[in-house]
Design goal:
Blueprint lengths: L7 E2 L10 H6 L11 H5 L16 E2 L46 E2 L16 H4 L8 H7 L7 H6 L4 H13 L3 E2 L2 H12 L4 H9 L10 H15 L9 H15 L10 H6 L8 H16 L15 H26 L5 H17 L5 H16 L15 H24 L20 H4 L3 H9 L14 H22 L8 H16 L19 H27 L5 H20 L8 H24 L20 H17 L7 H19 L48
Antiparallel strand pairs: 1-2, 3-4
Helix pairs in contact: 7-13, 12-13, 12-14, 13-14, 14-15, 14-16, 15-16, 16-19, 19-20, 19-21, 20-21, 21-22, 22-23, 22-24, 23-24, 23-25, 24-25
Amino acid sequence: MDSPGTPLRYRKNGRLQACDPCRRRKVACDHARPICGSCRRRRRAEPCEYTMSTPAQLRSPRASASRTSTTPTRESRPLVSEPSPAGSGGQVEQPMTGSTAVECPQPADGGVREVRGRSRPDDGAALSGHLGFTSFGDIYKEVGNGLSDRDTREDRLPDSSGDREENDIAAQMPDLAPSATTMETCLAVLKSIPEEDKGRALFASHFDPHDGFVRPVGQRILDSLYETYGDCFKPDADEARLAALVRLICANTTRPFDEHEPDAQAWIAQFTGTNIRWETLGVLFTYWELSARNEHLVRPHTVAPRVGGRAAGARLRDVYRRCLEDCSALARRHTEVGNALLLFIYWKRIIVASIVSGDTSLSCWMYNGEAVSLTTFLGLHVDGPKGPYTPTLASEVRRRLLYKIFVIDKVVASITGRPPLLGRRYIATPPPLDLKDDFLVADERTLASEVAKLDDKGYNTNGEGYPITFWRARAQLMLIRDEIFEISLGYEADTSVESLYALKNKELEAAADMPAVLRFKESDVRDPDVDSEKLYPRMLMRLEHLQNLFFIERLLKRHGRANDRDLLAVSYEMTSATLLFWTNMDGLAMVYEDFKWLVMAYAAPGGGILCLELLKPSVTLTDVSISSSDGNLITRSSIVQLLSLLVGFLNWVSPKEANGNICTNCRAIVHRVLDQALNVAPGTAGAPAPDPMEWDFDAAHLDFNFDLLDTFEWMRPEFSWTDLPA
């Protein structure tokens, strides 16, 4: 809200900007203060507000030389809110997809000053984002005007007079300072940045197999932040210095970001050191927020002891999440086109929202939509090379983000049953190369040498399993899953059974071509040489493969060509593979947050088929030789044992968790199925009466050495049972 003394806002065409209510209603505004004539006629009691969406020029009114402060209204309230007390139930994360309270910058003194090193915003073509084949720009690109093509713009010869004009305009651009409301939000974000020891400890202890960023870049961001501005994040930091840092970050964020910078160090320098942006802080807050969730599980020597216990940790986690959202909103309000850093933040918000609000929540789905929208706006899906490809840090980061968003889009669609938002038919960008993160930030010669060592499919040949190795292989399975979704979630009247069998063979071939480092063996769980960083990707790849087969078998059943043996076998195997996470929780504690969606995404659907087999036995009654791929026989007894473990896993998820209600409902259903299958009186319908005379009590089944019982001293007098704690 603006006071009568606030400088008037002018649009780029020189006309006065209309107030927000008039802009929304698309009616004329007479710009009267404090309430314009149009709003007075509508009996609006609140003063008019003038919110800027782009940095526009401001001019002080003649009748006023000073500004008066006003109380923020509900619509201009600061973004940062007090965190909810730990343990408060019913807390649901609200999506920040609409308007926020972050106001666009204004000059502090209403004048225009020279700003050194400031770049002019890119041309209108860049502001339009990627324009494809059906757009008007594509036609003009063919005739050479290049309205939207980046490469065509780069091929134009520079005009010296145009350069002088651009420099003159850049020199006259106002030094835009954030409004009081935005300043309050920005200061709250800076004050929430942990001190150096705490921030480094949280970053070091963070293990995330879903990390879509190049970790050395994240480390470089962390180092530059504390080396350049470490004094600003101490408890006794000067408020004026923080305010100056806010103005610097806002100014840096408005500068264009070169997405295609070939030099790795120059690409990193765009958002580190004195070029710090709101996206820079947003990247760090993603690490800190996710690390704070598992802080009580990490090794004591990797993180400083927390004061206040888990309650304080929960409050800190809420603060980090709020700052992550604020950095996202601030970056979005200060940039016209977005960039790869903002896309990474959008992608991480999906994961955080799935933990806080649930995988089926509106927040998670809308965040997924925003990430996909920014991906296609930036043109990452058609970012293929026009000639021989020379990988760079910038190009590989863009490819990694594209395929990670493609994968997470299919995961969310699998859980919710909603159509995916990004289809494989629209992606022309090849997958990222299987390169270690350190190679991407190395010199050009080192990077070229490592690229030459890759095989013809783009995988490394040294047998190593990098985070990107997992994502490349997972993306191949998700390309097949996208085909499955076209049939299962779309209308395909001409889908034949032969095409489904061809899809099944394609899935089996993709699993066979998987790198050896990602192939799961049940013995890996007990192998001390296989740590959690290797075990988790292998187990998850196994689940993704089984889920594809599970969907295909269900489609065959829909078309009346189902093989009940195969459907039961893949359901049994998918459920038992998921339960390995729960039965081996100690070795996988660092990813225990994932357990809550793994049980719902993989174990619950497979358990549903097992429940149907118990209620209406069809395979286990007629075929006693059915077994899973690992050779385990599938019987009614083994199904009961597996479902009993599933009940325990579902019960482990607290009802207060985001997915707690869904897990509680699934547990109740499985529990009732077990009761009905086990508590039915012998001889009744649906429960064949066992014949005790058919039981085989031969020596092969009675080879237990009961003499072992004599080795225990059951009546030890020196041990007092009363000493046990109550």
